[in-house]
Design a protein that fits this description.
The protein has a domain of 50 residues: Winged helix-like DNA-binding domain superfamily/Winged helix DNA-binding domain (Arc Repressor Mutant, subunit A, Orthogonal Bundle). It is built from two helices and three strands.
């Protein structure tokens, strides 16, 4: 019998979720909410570009700056089970 690996969890269930990301358009100031790096791709950004802005390696990506939501926490943390 071989070892079985646990199923990979996605999003906030995997323990590495750091909360939503706020993207701000440099020209207009418009803000968008991005729930995850894969969600960034759905908005037309590259996940690595957004990640590098978050880490401070880039100042902007495709005309947007990015930062973690200041009150970010895992969704439903307030719900007691």
């Amino acid at each position: 019998m071989g070892l079985q690996s646990a199923p990979r969890l996605k999003g906030w269930d995997n323990g590495s979720y750091k909360g939503p990301i706020i993207g701000t358009n440099i020209e207009t100031g418009e803000e968008i909410m991005i729930r995850s790096l894969p969600d960034a791709v759905n908005h037309g950004f590259s996940s690595s570009g957004v990640g590098k802005v978050l880490m401070g390696r880039y100042k902007q990506h495709k005309g947007y700056t990015f930062q973690r939501h200041p009150n970010s926490s895992k969704p439903n943390d307030h719900i007691k089970r």
